[in-house]
Design goal:
The structure holds 3 protein chains of 3 kinds.
Chain A lengths: L2 E5 L1 E2 L2 E2 L1 H17 L3 E6 L3 H8 L6 E5 L9 H15 L3 E5 L2 H14 L3 E9 L5 E6 L4 E7 L5 E5 L15 E4 L11 E3 L3 E2 L12 E5 L9 H11 L2 E4 L1 H5 L20 E5 L5 H4 L7 E6 L6 H4 L2 E4 L2 H16 L1
Chain B lengths: L1 E5 L2 E3 L21 E3 L1 H17 L4 E8 L4 H10 L3 E6 L8 H12 L6 E5 L10 H8 L3 E12 L2 E7 L4 E8 L2 E5 L11 H7 L4 E4 L11 E7 L8 E3 L3 H15 L4
Parallel strand pairs in B: 1-4, 1-6, 4-5, 5-11, 6-10, 7-10
Antiparallel strand pairs in B: 2-3, 7-8, 8-9
Helix pairs in contact in B: 2-5, 3-4
Chain C lengths: L4 E4 L2 E4 L3 H17 L5 E5 L13 E2 L2 H6 L12 E2 L2 E7 L4 E3 L13 E2 L2 H14 L3 E4 L3 E7 L2 E7 L2 E3 L5 E6 L2 E4 L2 E4 L6 H10 L10 E10 L9 E7 L8 E7 L4 E9 L9 H8 L3 H7 L3 E11 L10 E2 L2 E3 L1 H4 L10 H21 L4 H4 L1 H7 L2 H8 L10 H14 L42 H6 L13 E3 L2 H5 L1 H6 L3 H4 L5 E6 L2 E6 L9 H5 L5 E3 L14
The chains are: A alpha/beta, B alpha/beta, C alpha+beta.
Chain lengths: 324, 257, 546
């Protein structure tokens, strides 16, 4: 196949970011008349393969081995490396997950091939170009590949829309790999959850962000309710943190975090440049502000001029209703 | 124990960024440089491990770049690192983690480090691969996104960060190359005495071009300001109408409901 | 490490600006000549030399030639020799060239320069000659032995906003030095303490100040002549506010646009950053900048009082040099060469003090004699009444200046010394007027303060006690609002001070993170209740070529 998409397991289902990688593969396949295939690697490969077989793809491969039943970077790298050697895809696509960041560079080292990571778009108007963000997302860059051969590519969350995946039907094929215990250099314990001392906002899909326009600390629950309803994280611009209404790890902007979630709600945020540089990479921006001239509206995909204290509670209600 | 810390000098987060002519990098002269944030955490972790192990441990700081990177090496020395290695820059590979790792591997392979620490990713290129590729090239165990370390004789246990507030302890024998997540510790300030002492510590300058020809895999072909070809839809009407349209957008266009 | 370090050094310069660096280099050379093994160190609050340095600037190489006779072979990073000079009087839509440019406003033989680039170069030379420069350390107080200064305390690092120690807390150090030289630049914070403690302004004219605000603009390739110099008066300041604009051509098609505004205006509503935006509405300026984009912003105060506003320059164990003392030629709009010369003369005094092993007031006072018998005094003497004439408005100031040219600097041609007044006392109560109602900030050409501040690359550790100490916040929300309309919101060029309306009234919010260390608030607040102290070492603007 030309493009191989590696599927990651998320509690027995295909990880959303793997679905997004499939969309990327389907797009490239369609535009350049290439073939694509999907690979379920590691644990629950049966379930993943069945779930994957309903998508428009050439075939679904599965790799199972007892040394892969619990994730470890050496095993995954060695197994995938063998699949690549055998199937010789031109491209291997992944979602840019923590797991991929952990094991795919090893494959790059072993194959001596480039790993283009955290890619935000692919463009086929003149050849094929992969683009990513650089300098803390302040700049964008088209990547060049120096030589012919397999290219490993991982895609940033929400760069492609999983809902655009096309359906089809595919056969499932088992692929055998040889793994030796001596290859595996790490021993992992069971994963566990912890009270996050600081939230990694960069991993959030949806962010509800508040600015000065929230008025006072007592109004924060309005935004928090929206976040709860829609399944997002709360963040803010600097003035809110400066006033002590939110802890500093929730700050977005030049002196806070830089995020590019699928959806960024800017509530009562004017759009000062210090804040904007921290969120302008967001895939979808919805801004609610009383001031029609607020610079945030230049950046927003959807803008609402109005009183957020009135609008947001109603929006929260409507969202909860829509979900039920 | 011999510990190595890879530190990178990058434009400060507040620094202006001008695209240099040729459109493959930024104008260095316009930027204010500092130590890469996660590398600073990596350095602090290495220094703490050295302090806990006692005096026969050594922390060696390595950085690649033009002469100005000696500033971050000196900063590391003033915080307690023992010696520094400055690898002269090879501009053609600076955006390629593979080739960069090759150069590092070539320069440090004979040092036989027990542990190599690097920051999770750099604030300029941000590929987050160099430490892992380097470890792989040197036959070491690797782990990324490390939020805590426990060092024993001959082995290390690390707490890896997983998505959504999950963590996992992973053990491995040394030698190992670990990439460190910001927030793992609180980096120290250099003291005046530390700064003065740093001048007496060794800083070796290495020219890699004579020893290794790295194989460039990828590069920045074109760097540009991200364009926002945004068409803003201003949602109108009374509150109920606006809310209705918003829910519609969330459902059918943004597809988060 | 939880106890304060004690470091024993020999000579400590505070502030790595041209005065200290030139002084340190000269001193190291004198020590080498005499075989003295004393150490020379410089303390700098910025994370790197030059990051907090801002000026126009037109650089007179007079002192540089003394320090480095071969400077032309040394790749000093000037922008260019001054190639063309213009003086204009601006009115709302027009620009009139000055028919006659007085010799003092001619800059041939000088260079258009960035003080930031220059101090970085000078800092490298200083380190080459054996001077230690400690960046990221702020000097917060003196160490005394009775009435003798015997050192400087550096600030603690790692204290949170409630005053508690953070896990990586590092206490400051007590640096002992036989001589402390204050080259902190304009309105130095240690300088302020020293002047107060030893009453060093007794018998002197009060210092008068101005603020300079500037933007650097990136213009299209080939459109800027390096070495282009223009100065203007008139619009937007008019006749009653001291000041004028400068436009300099730098390398790499960068245009340097700035405005100096005297901090002795009567209308408490005057806002220098807004005046700079008004300047840009002038059609000529617009035509210069139209195709460009802003790349940097900064502001700093300047001491304008001249010769008679210089404080007593020495006490036992300490000396004042550069802008901290006030060696600036307001008429020529130049001070870097004077700062350097003052540092170099201080070096001579210090070298002699070491030879005699005497660092008392009696020994160090020879610095004043050296200043008096050098060209430093000659130059400043001729313009000693320059700023003071502008008390009578623009025309008065020009006439006074003209008369001064023929009388060796006499005020109105006849008086040896014109009085000066504290600028903060000149604001008239109840007269705050908004001069900016027509100004529309579009974020691309005309910027509001918050946007301009972004381009100063200023950053502060957020979790610390604000470094702007206000003795009585009640005055801010009561008396000051009534009498002056809270001028802090206007005179601060960085939007640090904000009166925030709340349900239960107003409060003053201090956005200290925006501070560009210009010191204007310390100078201009009418009640003199604002005390600017250094924030955590390393914090502040990130200027590269301002």
């Amino acid at each position: 196949m030309d493009i191989l998409v590696v599927l990651e397991n998320n509690k027995g289902a295909i990880h959303r970011m793997s679905l997004e990688a499939i969309v990327a593969a389907q797009k490239l396949a369609a535009e350049q008349n290439l073939s694509n295939a999907l690979l379920a690697l590691g644990a629950d490969t049966g379930a993943l393969a069945s779930a994957a077989a309903i998508y428009d793809t050439g075939e679904v491969l599965t790799v199972e081995h007892n040394l892969l039943s619990v994730y470890n970077s050496d095993g995954y790298a060695a197994a995938l490396r063998q699949v690549i050697d055998q199937e010789k895809p031109s491209y291997v696509f992944f979602g840019h997950t923590y797991m991929v960041r952990d094991y795919v560079p090893k494959i790059s080292a072993q194959l001596q091939r480039p790993f283009l990571c955290d890619v935000i778009s692919l463009n086929t108007t003149a050849g094929l170009t992969f683009a990513k963000q650089a300098f803390n997302a302040k700049l964008a860059v088209d990547l060049g590949v120096a030589s012919e051969g397999t290219v490993l590519v991982s895609f940033q969350s929400a760069s492609f829309n999983a809902d655009l995946i096309s359906s089809g039907s595919a056969q499932i094929r088992e692929v055998a790999v040889e793994l030796d215990e001596t290859v595996i250099k790490t021993t992992s314990e069971e994963p566990f959850q912890e009270e996050a001392g600081g939230v990694d906002l960069t991993a959030a899909e949806i962010i509800i962000s508040v600015g000065r326009g929230i008025g006072k600390e007592e109004n924060l629950p309005i935004a928090e309710a929206l976040a709860q309803a829609i399944g997002g994280e709360i963040s803010s611009s600097r003035p809110v943190v400066d006033s002590g209404w939110l802890p500093s790890f929730r700050q977005i902007g030049s002196s806070g975090q830089t995020v590019s979630p699928k959806l960024y709600f800017a509530l009562g945020i004017s759009g000062a440049i210090q804040h904007v540089v921290g969120m302008k990479g967001s895939k979808n921006i919805v801004a609610i502000n009383k001031d029609a001239e607020a610079p945030i509206f230049e950046l927003a995909d959807y803008g609402v001029v109005g009183d957020l204290l009135e609008i947001v509670p109603k929006l929260t209600e409507a969202i909860l209703a829509a979900k039920n | 124990m011999k510990l190595c810390v890879l530190v990178k000098q990058v434009p400060g987060s507040e620094s202006a960024l001008r695209i240099a002519s040729g459109n493959t990098w930024i104008e260095d002269a316009a930027a204010l440089f500092e130590m890469n944030e996660s590398d600073n955490y990596a350095l602090e972790e290495a220094l703490r491990i050295k302090e806990s192990l006692g005096n026969d441990s050594e922390v060696v700081v390595v950085s690649m770049g033009p002469e100005r990177v000696q500033k971050v090496i000196r900063e590391a020395l003033s915080k307690g690192a023992d010696r520094g290695i400055h690898i002269n820059e090879m501009p053609e590979i600076k955006s390629d983690p593979f080739a960069t790792a090759q150069v590092f591997a070539n320069v440090i392979k004979d040092e036989n480090f027990d542990l190599i620490f690097s920051g999770l990713q750099s604030d300029d290129v941000g590929s987050g691969q160099t430490g892992v590729i380097l470890g792989e090239m040197l036959g070491m165990a690797t782990a990324t996104l490390v939020m805590a370390t426990e060092v024993q004789e001959g082995s290390i246990k690390v707490k890896r960060e997983l998505e959504s507030g999950w963590f996992q302890w992973v053990s491995m024998s040394t030698p190992a190359s670990i990439t460190i997540q910001s927030g793992i510790n609180q980096p120290r300030y250099p003291s005046l005495k530390g700064i003065m002492g740093a001048k007496k510590k060794e800083m070796k300058v290495v020219d890699p071009s004579t020893a290794v020809t790295p194989e460039k895999q990828q590069s920045f072909a074109n760097i540009y300001l991200p364009t926002a070809d945004k068409k803003t839809e201003m949602i109108e009407g009374n509150v109920d109408q606006m809310v209705s349209r918003l829910v519609d957008v969330l459902k059918t266009e943004i597809k988060v409901l | 490490m939880t106890e304060r370090e004690i470091l024993d050094l020999d000579v400590l310069f505070v502030g790595a600006g041209p005065a200290s660096l030139a002084g340190a280099i000269q001193l190291k050379r004198l020590f080498n000549e005499s075989g003295c093994k004393a150490s020379v160190a410089v303390l700098e609050k910025a994370s790197e030399v030059g990051a907090h340095s801002l000026s126009g600037a037109i650089f007179d190489p007079r002192s540089l030639i003394e320090l480095f006779p071969d400077y032309k072979d040394r790749n000093v990073p000037f922008e260019a020799e001054v190639k063309e000079e213009h003086m204009y009087y601006l009115m709302k839509g027009k620009k009139l060239p000055f028919p006659y440019v007085p010799p003092s406003m001619r800059h041939h033989g000088c260079y258009v320069a960035s003080i930031g680039k220059f101090t970085r170069w000078l800092g490298d030379r200083a380190e080459e000659e054996g001077v230690d420069i400690f960046c990221g350390f702020s000097g917060t107080d003196f160490v005394y032995d009775g009435d003798e200064v015997i050192g400087v305390k550096t600030g603690d690092r790692g204290i949170d906003k409630d005053g508690e120690r953070k896990p990586h807390f590092e206490p400051g150090a007590d640096i002992h030095a036989k001589v402390v030289v204050l080259g902190e630049g304009t309105r130095g914070s240690l300088t302020k303490k020293l002047i107060q403690k030893f009453n060093l302004m007794e018998g002197r004219n009060p210092q008068v100040w101005a603020i300079g605000v500037k933007e650097l603009w990136q213009m299209p390739s080939g459109t800027v002549t390096p070495g282009y110099v223009a100065h203007t008066m008139g619009f937007p300041l008019g006749h009653d506010i001291f000041g004028g604009a400068f436009i300099y051509g730098m390398q790499n098609d960068i245009l340097d646009l700035g405005l100096v505004v005297g901090l002795d205006y009567q209308n408490p509503g005057v806002d220098a950053q807004h005046e700079l935006q008004r300047l840009k509405t002038h059609p000529w300026i617009r035509s210069l900048l139209a195709e460009g984009e802003i790349i940097a912003y900064g502001a700093k105060s300047l001491p304008e009082g001249g010769w008679y506003s210089l404080p007593k320059l020495t006490v036992g164990g300490a000396m004042l040099i550069g802008d901290s003392a006030g060696f600036l030629n307001g008429q020529r709009l130049k001070g870097i060469h004077l700062a350097m010369k003052s540092g170099m003369l201080a070096a001579e005094t210090i070298s002699e003090a070491f030879a005699a092993d005497d660092f008392s007031a009696a020994s160090l006072v020879s610095f004043t004699d050296k200043v008096n018998s050098s060209w430093l005094k000659n130059e400043l003497w001729k313009v000693r009444n320059f700023h003071q004439g502008f008390d009578r408005g623009l025309l008065g100031g020009l006439i006074n200046s003209g008369l001064g040219l023929f009388t060796g600097g006499r005020g109105w041609g006849i008086k040896d010394r014109l009085p000066s007044h504290h600028g903060h006392e000149l604001m008239q109560k109840g007269t705050a007027e908004d001069r900016y109602t027509d100004l529309e900030f579009d974020g691309k050409y005309l910027f509001d303060k918050v946007t301009d501040v972004y381009y100063s690359a200023t950053a502060h550790e957020e979790d610390q006690i604000p470094h702007l100490h206000i003795q009585d916040m009640d005055i801010c929300i009561t008396k000051c609002t009534e009498e002056y309309g809270n001028p802090c919101e206007k005179f601060c060029p960085a939007d640090v001070y904000e009166m925030v309306q709340q349900d239960d009234g107003k409060r003053l919010q201090i956005n200290f993170s925006n501070c560009v260390h210009c010191k204007t608030c310390d100078i201009m607040d009418p009640y003199q209740i604002i005390d600017w102290v250094p924030p955590e070492g390393g914090d502040g603007p990130g200027w590269v070529n301002l």
